[in-house]
Design a protein that fits this description.
CATH topology of the largest domain: 60s Ribosomal Protein L30, Chain: A
Strand content: 15-25%
InterPro entries: Endoribo_LPSP/chorism_mut-like
Order of helices and strands: HHHHEEHEHEE
Largest sheet: 5 strands, mixed
Pfam family, one: YjgF_endoribonc
Helix content: 40-55%
Protein name: Translation initiation inhibitor
Shape: globular
Number of helices: 6
Domain Endoribonuclease L-PSP/chorismate mutase-like: 59-194
Strand order of the largest sheet: 1-2-5-3-4
CATH class of the largest domain: Alpha Beta
């Protein structure tokens, strides 16, 4: 069999014929080493999965708070179902471990205070995801965020409060991954007198 006959073969047969020639023909060294070199140049899955998000967080000057433990009779902060991850409600723990508390009323606790509380709640979610996944680049998409704001009856800016969480998620993950659906509601009270509680739904990349 010569090289000229390869043009008359189907694609699969060409591959087999080429393999035969690589083993037995005079061009074996040339033909065999090339695909091996190309294969060596292809990064492994581990090499491709660089920790870009963690590096980006560092570049932003953001320090994630410690991942918080559950505060009630449940042990799962994240529940996986397929490639979806359901994140329990997170509290606005600050870097020093203190909670942002109190009712957002537009006066004593204004929108900016609520915004910062929602931002910290978002950072706590990211800290939990990092602890649970080990690599934030495993996240395909922040699908949805649900925020509850402790607020007075006449306070109507819960959506502006929740921008604190949405903004920091998009800041960290970028719009392609961090852009999400969202709901924001107000309530007269929350556990531990916290100002904001936030939960999330996250889609993971296939393994």
């Amino acid at each position: 069999m010569g090289f000229s006959t390869l043009s008359h073969l189907p694609r699969v047969s060409k591959t087999l014929a080429t393999a035969f020639l690589c083993r037995n023909g005079p061009y074996s060294k040339t033909v065999v080493t090339r695909p091996l070199q190309q294969q060596q140049q292809q990064p492994s899955l581990t090499q491709r999965r660089m920790v870009h998000v963690e590096k980006h967080i560092e570049s932003l000057g953001i320090t994630l708070p410690p991942a918080a433990a559950p505060r009630a009779n449940y042990n799962i902060v994240c529940q996986a179902s397929g490639n979806m991850l359901y994140v329990s409600g997170h509290l606005p723990f600050q870097a020093d471990g203190t909670l942002m508390t109190g009712r957002i009323d537009g006066k004593e606790r204004d929108v900016d205070y609520g915004y910062q509380a929602a931002r910290w709640a978002g950072l706590n979610i990211v800290a939990t995801l990092q602890e649970q996944l080990g690599d934030l680049d495993r996240i395909e998409k922040i699908v949805k965020v649900f925020g509850i704001v402790q607020s007075s009856d006449d306070f109507k800016s819960q959506h502006l409060v929740m921008d604190g969480c949405s903004d920091v998620l998009m800041e960290i993950f970028g719009k392609e991954v961090g852009y999400h659906a969202r709901s924001a509601i107000g309530t007269s009270t929350l556990p531990l007198d916290i100002s904001v509680e936030v939960e999330a739904v996250v889609q993971l990349k296939p393994e």
